[in-house]
Structures are given as C-alpha cells and as structure tokens.
Amino acid sequence: MEVYKVLEIKKSVYENNDREAELLRQELKKEQTFLLNLMSSPGSGKTTTLLRTIEALKDEMRIAILEADIDSDVDAHTVAKTGTKVIQLHTGGMCHLDAGMTRQGLDGIGSEDADLVVLENVGNLVCPAEFDTGASKNAMILSVPEGDDKPLKYPLMFSIVDVLLINKIDVLEHFDFDLDVLRAQVNKINPNLIVIPISAKTGEGIGEWADWLRGAVKNWNQPEPVVESPA
Amino acid sequence: MHELGIVYEVIKIVDEFALANNLTKVDKIILEIGQLSQTIPHFVEACYPAAVSDTPYQETKLEIIVLPARGECQACHEIFNVVDHRKICPNCQAEDFSLISGREFNIKEVVAY
Ligand SMILES: Nc1nc2c(ncn2[C@@H]2O[C@H](COP(=O)(O)OP(=O)(O)O)[C@@H](O)[C@H]2O)c(=O)[nH]1
Ligand SMILES: [Mg+2]
Ligand SMILES: [Zn+2]
Ligand SMILES: [Zn+2]
C-alpha cells in the first residue's frame, strides 16, 4: 500500500507564460521589431483603427499584422487589401492569446523583416489583461458608445495598458460620455496612462496616435542607455 | 472558454512537476484562487472533468482554496477585506487602499505518491 504525501508546488499558473513573454520581448528587442498588443471589447474599432494606422505609417516602416479577432466586421482580408502582411491566427475559440500563440504568429509572418507588428487581440477586456503576450507596449481602445464608466468595471485592463485610445469621438454628442470624467477615473487607476481621443472614421486624432507610435518604435530601437559614472 | 485554457495550463504544470519528482499517481491538486482573480472557481470546477478526461489525471481530484481580497487603507493602515467592505475602509471610511492579496492563481500543492 503506497502512502500519499503532500508535495508543495506554490507556483502561479501565469508564471510559465510570464517567463515565455519576457523571453519573447528580449528577442524582439534584439531583432528590432516593435510589437503592439491592441485590445478592446468587440466592435470598439480595433480593425478600423489599424487600417488608419497602416495608412499613416506604411511609407516609413515595414508593418505586419497578427489578426486574432475573428468576429469582426472588417477582418484579415480587409487588412490584406492595403498590401500589408497579415495572418489570421487560429485561436480555437480561446478568449485570450498567450505568449506561445503570439510567438507562433510572429514566426509565421516572419517578424524579423518587420519594424512594427500589431497584434489585434481577441475582443475581450477580461483575460487578455492577465496574459502577457510579450508585446513591447499594450494599447487599449475604448469607444464612446461603451460609456465613460468602463474603467470601474475593468480596472485590471486599465492598469496594465500604456496607451488608451478613445475611439468614435465623431459620435460624442449623441452619447452621455464625459471625457473629463473618464480621464479622472483612468488617472486614479493608472496615472502614467496616455489617453488619445480619435475617430477611426473621420481620421481625427490619428496624427497624434501615429506620433505616439512613431516615438515608441524609435525608443524601442534605441540601445540600452549606458550609465556614465561621474568623472 | 477562458477557464478551460487555464485548467490545461494547470495540468501542464502538474505534469511537469510529477515527471520531475517521479510521481506515479496524483490523487489531488490543490489550487489557490484570489477573490479578485478573473478566473471563477465555480467555472474551473465545471470544466475540470472535461480537461482531464482521457489523461492520466482523469481520477485526480481538485480542491480550490479561495484567498481573500485584502487591502491596506492608505489613510489609517487598517487591513480589511475589500470585497466585504465594498472598497471602503471600515475603520476610517477612506476609499484609497493598496491591494495586498486577492489576484492570485496558484497551484498550492498536490497529494501524490
Ligand atoms: N462612428 C464610428 N464608427 C466606427 C469608428 N471606428 C469603427 N467604427 C465602426 O464600428 C464597427 C466595429 O469596428 P471594427 O474595427 O470592426 O471593431 P473591432 O471589432 O474592434 O475590430 C464597424 O462598423 C466600424 O465601421 C469611428 O471612429 N466612428
Ligand atoms: Mg476586428
Ligand atoms: Zn481567457
Ligand atoms: Zn482607514
């Protein structure tokens, strides 16, 4: 008769993914590829914003797209028509992407030949916040019809992103959405978060967004600052 | 579904652990899930049988320990359960706190031989 014993593991379920993501981030840094993880609820305008972004930046950098959002009005085919490299990731109905799936996508598209890769994550504000994809920066889109109280409902997502795009500002007057209220709430959760109001439909604010992205890509490719010791 | 993917990850980690420690049979897996984790214990239990069916863990039991969401009041440093007290310090009624625990999702231990 064998005797059961209790063996302590004490390991976070996210630990493997976190390690994998960190490794991927270092590799991307070495090959000078900037990976943006773009997240939002379904229909906030990820794909439409992507098309605008491609339009604004395609003459200055090589762009590739990893498309994981399946239930969308505009999909991989629409992006492909712009002449940008794009692949549809098969997420098998999963509600989030992890670093392993992201790596497969990057290998599939040949990320070493791209300066900017955008991952259009699955439309969901819950679990993508818990899974580091290995991205250089994380962006989120909140669209006006979703309401200015979303940060209260999804604090984790708002706390992990670097930049927040407020999309569909062309319909602002038809909704009870207060940009100042939103900024105040966001500031409480994540004081460093950059907020950029845009309309992917009219193009308003896309210039500012493209500037931010341009700066982020440039920073990513800077060599690590050398700390000079005082003489 | 989110929880199913998570349970596969749990099994993967346990499997690696079993291999490294020469375990022949895992009787029980014990998880710790924070009260504020995005993963819901009830759903984990619900999809667990599907995740382990036709694997060496088919007979392995699952136990979940819920870890409380504890916050420390930034004003008076009282430590309180932020869910029970709706994010308001029961001592001084301040609304600013820092979270001490509650977001975990750990594999605590396994019972095995
Ligand atoms: N009015 C308005 N509609 C938009 C804007 N951006 C996207 N949409 C519409 O919102 C819907 C969802 O957009 P899509 O890019 O597919 O969202 P995704 O699911 O996040 O990829 C589409 O019908 C778009 O035409 C915008 O700035 N203003
Ligand atoms: Mg889309
Ligand atoms: Zn998920
Ligand atoms: Zn207090």
Strand and helix map with partners:
The complex is a heterodimer of chains A (231) and B (113).
Chain A: E1 5-12, H1 15-30, E2 34-40, H2 46-57, E3 63-67, H3 76-80, E4 85-88, H4 99-109, E5 116-120, E6 137-143, H5 150-153, H6 155-160, E7 163-167, H7 179-189, E8 194-197, H8 206-221
Parallel strand pairs in A: 2-5, 2-6, 3-4, 3-5, 6-7, 7-8
Helix pairs in contact in A: 2-8
Chain B: H1 2-20, E1 26-34, H2 41-52, E2 61-67, E3 70-73, E4 79-81, E5 97-101, E6 105-112
Parallel strand pairs in B: 1-2
Antiparallel strand pairs in B: 1-6, 3-4, 3-5
Magnesium ion (MG) binds at residues 46-47, 69, 72, 120 of chain A.
Walk me through the structure.
The complex is a heterodimer of chains A (231) and B (113). Helix content of chain A is 35%, strand content 19%. Chain A has 231 residues and is α/β, with parallel strands linked by helices. A seven-stranded parallel beta sheet of chain A has the order 4-3-5-2-6-7-8, with helices on both faces. The longest helix of chain A has 16 residues, at 15-30. Chain A is globular, with a radius of gyration of 19 Å. Chain B is an alpha+beta fold and 113 residues long. Helices cover 27% and strands 32% of the residues of chain B. In chain B, the strands form two sheets. A three-stranded mixed beta sheet of chain B has the order 2-1-6, covered by helices on one side. In chain B, β3 (70-73) and β4 (79-81) form a beta hairpin. In chain B, α1 (2-20) crosses α2 (41-52). The radius of gyration of chain B is 18 Å and the shape is elongated. Chain A binds chain B through residues 2-14, 16-17, 93-96, 126-127, 129-130, 156, and chain B through 1-2, 5-6, 9-10, 12-14, 17, 21, 23-25, 27, 38, 103-113. One zinc ion is lined by residues 73, 75-76, 78, 89, 91-92, 94 of chain B.
Would you summarize the structure shown here?
The complex is a heterodimer of chains A (231) and B (113). Chain A is α/β, with parallel strands linked by helices.
